[in-house]
């Protein structure tokens, strides 16, 4: 399968893992022995864009403590190797000292260019993907209404329905994965904007004090 297809399978696994975690830990535990190898396999065949999506899934699992620290560390190692590069967080984004007084800031706020880039990336977010929305809305009624299972009269019709259900599951898993990544990005952007606003207020207060 192509890397993007394999990424969708990981989105599907993510959906199962997180939903089952609310009801019971069985699936989370069952996936643990293979999820590291899956990350390593997909990462080895993926470009930087695909690896970025993998990193988003990992960051969500870290934030929600889906797995224990030892498993999360193995996932980081599988994805980033010896580099141990983590997705850059808003705390790590540096700002020109001329834009803000560093002595008043517990963390370095983002630059304007970083905010613009983050906002531009959200323009293509899952929640605004009209094409996918239309595909989901157009899913066959057979995959939505279990009562229609009675229409299966032979092996061929059963196989056709099975394929439609599989395709629908992959579509929804991919969309759910993108939505989870979007939520993660929006939370990070909120923190970035909060830090940027704080910085600007401090900078303005400092200038007003000098004018007095």
Short description:
With 212 residues, the chain is mainly alpha-helical. It folds into 2 domains: 3-80, Serine Threonine Protein Phosphatase 5, Tetratricopeptide repeat (Alpha Horseshoe); 112-211.
Describe this protein with a few key phrases.
212 residues, Serine Threonine Protein Phosphatase 5, Tetratricopeptide repeat, mainly alpha, 2 domains, elongated, 0% strand, RNA polymerase II complex binding
Describe this structure in words.
The protein is mainly α and 212 residues long. It contains 7 helices and no strands. Helix 2 packs parallel to helix 4 and helix 3 crosses helix 7. The longest helix has 57 residues. InterPro entries: CID_dom (IPR006569), ENTH_VHS (IPR008942), RPRD1A/B_C (IPR032337). This is RPR1A protein. Belongs to the UPF0400 (RTT103) family. One of its GO terms (molecular function) is RNA polymerase II complex binding.
Number of strands: 0
Query: N-to-C SSE series?
Result: HHHHHHH
- Main sheet attributes: strand count, strand direction, barrel closure: none
Percentage of β-strand residues: under 5%
* Quaternary assembly: single chain
User: Helix content range of the residues, please?
Assistant: 55-70%
Structural class: mainly alpha
Number of domains: 2
Show unreliable segments. 84-106
Shape estimate? elongated
Mean pLDDT figure: 79
Q: Helical stretch count? A: 7
Query: What gyration radius follows from the Cα positions, in whole Å?
Result: 22 Å
- The first-to-last residue Cα distance is 67 Å
GO biological process, one term: mRNA 3'-end processing
Protein name: RPR1A protein
Organism: Pandion haliaetus
Pfam family, one: CID
């Amino acid at each position: 399968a192509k890397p993007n297809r394999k990424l969708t399978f990981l989105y599907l696994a993510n959906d199962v893992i997180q939903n089952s975690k609310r009801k019971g830990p069985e699936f989370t535990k069952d996936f643990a022995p293979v999820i590291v190898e899956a990350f390593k396999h997909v990462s080895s065949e993926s470009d930087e864009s695909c690896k970025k999506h993998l990193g988003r899934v990992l960051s969500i699992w870290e934030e929600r403590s889906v797995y224990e620290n030892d498993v999360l560390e193995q996932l980081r190692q599988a994805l980033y190797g010896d580099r141990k590069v983590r997705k850059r967080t808003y705390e790590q984004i540096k700002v020109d000292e001329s834009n803000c007084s560093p002595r008043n800031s517990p963390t370095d706020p983002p630059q304007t260019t970083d905010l613009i880039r983050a906002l531009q990336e959200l323009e293509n977010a899952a929640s605004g993907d009209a094409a996918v929305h239309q595909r989901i809305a157009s899913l066959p009624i057979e995959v939505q209404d279990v009562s229609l299972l009675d229409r299966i009269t032979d092996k061929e019709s059963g196989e056709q329905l099975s394929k439609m259900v599989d395709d629908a599951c992959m579509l929804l898993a991919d969309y759910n994965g993108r939505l989870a990544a979007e939520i993660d990005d929006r939370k990070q952007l909120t923190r970035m904007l909060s830090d940027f606003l704080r910085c600007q207020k401090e900078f303005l207060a400092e200038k007003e004090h000098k004018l007095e």
